[in-house]
Specification:
Blueprint (H helix, E strand, L loop, with lengths): L4 H4 L5 H23 L4 E7 L3 H16 L3 E7 L5 H13 L5 E4 L9 H6 L12 H8 L8 H12 L8 E5 L6 H10 L3 E5 L6 H5 L4 E4 L17 E4 L12 H4 L5 E2 L6 H21 L5
Helix pairs in contact: 2-11, 3-11, 7-8, 7-11
This protein binds NADP nicotinamide-adenine-dinucleotide phosphate.
Length: about 290
Amino acid sequence: MRTNSANAAKIMDGRDLARRVLDAARTKVQRIRAATGHTPTLATVLVGDDPASAVYVRMKRKRCEDVGMMCLAVELPQQATTEQVVAEVHKLGADSGVHGILVQHPVPAPIDKRAAFEAIPVSKDVDGVTSGTLGRIILGMPGFIPCTPAGIMQLLRAHRVQLDGAFAVVIGRSPILGRPMASLLINAHATVALCHSRTHSLPSIVRMADVVIAACGQPRFVQGGWIKLGAVVIDAGYNAGNVGDVDFDAAIEPASLITPVPGGVGPMTIATLIDHTADAAAEQLGIALP
Ligand SMILES: NC(=O)c1ccc[n+]([C@@H]2O[C@H](COP(=O)([O-])OP(=O)(O)OC[C@H]3O[C@@H](n4cnc5c(N)ncnc54)[C@H](OP(=O)(O)O)[C@@H]3O)[C@@H](O)[C@H]2O)c1
C-alpha cells in the first residue's frame, strides 16, 4: 500500500474507528458489571488445528480482555464430529454465564458448519451466522448483524457516505458477508447489484457503482480501471500476505474514499464482535444501556 498526503485524505481508517468502538464497549462492560455483578462473556469454539483460525481466536480473546470482558475458549479436536460440536454449542447456549457464542470458521470439512451455526441461540448469535439472524436482517428487524458487514456500515456512516439512492455493487454472496451486506445497503435505500463468480461483465457493472464492496476472496481482483471517478471502495478481502480483494494502489486514484488492507475492514470486524457481546449481555441481564 502506497499513499501520499493527497491520497491520505481518502483513506477510511478502520483502526481509529475500531478503537472508538472498543472504548464504548469497555464503558458498556463497566456499566453491566456495576449494575449486575456479572462480567459479559464470549465463548469461542475452535475446532481442529487450522493455524490461521487459532490466530483469529487468540486475537478475539485478547480484545475481550482489553475491554474487561471474559472469554471462554472451547477447543475441539480435528476429528470432532458434527454431533459433538453441536452438543458443545448447545451446552454454551444453555449456560447463563455465557452471553455470546462464536464458532470460528472454517471448521474441518466433514463437519456440517450450518448445523454448528444453527445450534447457537439467536440471542447469543453475536457473530450473526444463524439463519434466524439473517432473516431478521433482511426484514430490517433488530439482530446481531454479521460483524464484517456491520463494521462496513459503521465505516460508511462515519464517513457520511450517501447511500440513499446510490448504486452499490457487492462482489461476493457468502451468507456471512456478501448477502447480509447487500441487505443492509438495500435497507439504507441503495440500489444494489449482488455479484458473484457467475456474473457476466463484472467490470462494466462495477464501473457504474457509487459504492463498491469487494468480498470475493481473490487477491487484488478489483482493478483501478473498474472504479468510477469519486466512487467509495470498501475492501473486505483478506488474503495471504495481507492483501485485499482490490488493487489498492490503482483504485485509490479514482476513488473518493477507500479502505486499506490491513487497517480497514479487519479491525472493525473484531471490534463489532466485542460490542455485540456487550449488548447481548446487557439484553440477557436486563440492563438498558444508554
Ligand atoms: N476482514 C475481515 O474481518 C473478514 C471477515 C470475513 C471474510 N473476510 C474476507 O472477505 C473475503 C470474502 O470472504 P467470504 O467468507 O465471504 O468468502 P467465500 O465464502 O469464499 O465467498 C466468496 C464469494 O466471492 C465470489 N467470487 C469468487 N470468485 C469470484 C470472481 N472471480 N468474481 C466474482 N465473484 C467471485 C463467490 O462467488 P460464488 O458464490 O459464485 O462462488 C462467493 O460468493 C475473503 O477475502 C475473506 O478473507 C474478511
